[in-house]
TrEMBL record:
Domain Putative restriction endonuclease intervals: 11-194
Protein keywords: Endonuclease, Hydrolase, Nuclease
Pfam families found in the cross-reference section: Uma2 (PF05685)
Protein name: Uma2 family endonuclease
Length: 201
């Protein structure tokens, strides 16, 4: 039996072939299927809606795009596709791709990421925690509504968990919330949200 390694894609090849397909992202040249399901998309949509309400009520000059790719400046063959992203409108003028494609290169443009955990939970709890901290993203939410993450991340017994990662001196300080808990966000101080409220039907 011979092993055939997966084809390695460049960032440009990924954009050409999969740039408009929201199922996929690219990590170190490897194509990743994000495996979106109806419940996954429902949770992501609910989170995006609640964030938008907070932006509107607080009169922040931010936006929540429907679709966006992140090209970390230090990674040649990586294109991350967060489930929810909040961008600073003023910083968009510094983005080299934005006028032609929804691609963000500068961490300073990004205020918040939210990832809804699926079967590839290792990326959300490990890889992306490092990636987003390196980009100096102020806040990162890990929404594990199915309790899929490893025991070292969400504890035992596994249960639905909402983790807020706040960047402090270049490292994320993590606070976990369970069903029934009121979630607190440093970035959105007036946010009133519980995990129960965004759970899919």
């Amino acid at each position: 039996m011979t092993y055939t390694p997966p084809k390695v894609l460049s960032f440009e090849e990924f954009i050409t072939q999969y740039g408009d397909d929201t199922r996929y992202e690219l990590i170190d040249g490897e194509l990743r299927d994000m495996e979106p399901t109806g419940p996954h998309e429902a949770v992501a949509g609910s989170i995006a809606g609640r964030i938008y309400v907070e932006i509107f009520n607080s009169n922040f000059n931010w936006l929540v795009p429907k679709n966006c790719l992140i090209k970390p400046p230090y990674a040649e063959a990586t294109a991350l596709r967060p489930d929810v992203i909040v961008l600073d409108k003023i910083q968009l003028s510094q983005e080299p791709f934005w006028q032609k494609e929804p691609i963000i290169c500068n961490g300073s443009t990004i205020k918040l990421f939210a990832e809804v955990v699926s079967t590839n939970w290792q990326d959300d709890y490990a890889r992306k925690v490092e990636e987003y901290a390196f980009l100096n993203i102020p806040e990162y939410w890990i929404v594990d509504f199915q309790g899929l993450g490893g025991l070292q991340f969400i504890g035992n017994p596994k249960q639905p968990t909402f983790t807020v990662c706040q960047l402090v001196n270049g490292v994320y300080q993590q606070q976990q919330y369970r069903l029934g808990d009121t979630i607190s966000s440093h970035l959105l101080p007036n946010l009133q949200m519980k995990l129960d409220e965004i759970m899919p039907i």
